[in-house]
Write a structure and sequence with these properties.
By secondary structure, the protein is an alpha+beta fold. It has one domain (3-159). The chain is built from three helices and nine strands; from the N terminus they run αββββαββββαβ. Strands 4-3-5-6 form a four-stranded antiparallel sheet. This is Putative lipoprotein involved in nitrous oxide reduction.
Length: 174
Amino acid sequence: MNIGMKKRAVVMSLVFSFFASLVSAATIDLPDGSKLDLSQTCPVCDMKLESSELGVAAIVFEDGKVVGFDAAGDLFRYYFTHEKYHSDSAKIKNVYVTDYGTKKLIDAKQAIYVLGAKLKAAMGPEAFPFADKAAAEKFKSDHNGKKIASFSEVSLEDLTVKKKTLKMDRGHNH
């Protein structure tokens, strides 16, 4: 191999490595400086974070570990059942959600959530986060939301599919 071919091979290898690192390292900078790897999957529903339509959410632990979610609803499902995922809620440093209106990452504990909205979400009932209360109120009105809640007011029940109870007709006429 002559010197020109060797240089070309080295350059091509470097270019390939550079582009491969860009594709495999798609990240979002979180407000605290942590990075959320968008190539990971949500631990609750197993969807790729990069395919999130509602906006990603993340929990940053004290040891620097970042767990990502494809939406705020799955973040809450994880948060309320953290033992199932072998995590310790006492070691959570920060929690972030994507503001549904602005698509910016915000502190989940400061956000306002619209619950029970009649907007289709892939994983069932969703918590739609907003930084601005007026935006949350408008969204609630526009999408027939049931309530507005702070982080501490959201419950697992708010994010669980409700099964309608069926009354059986036993043929009795009264």
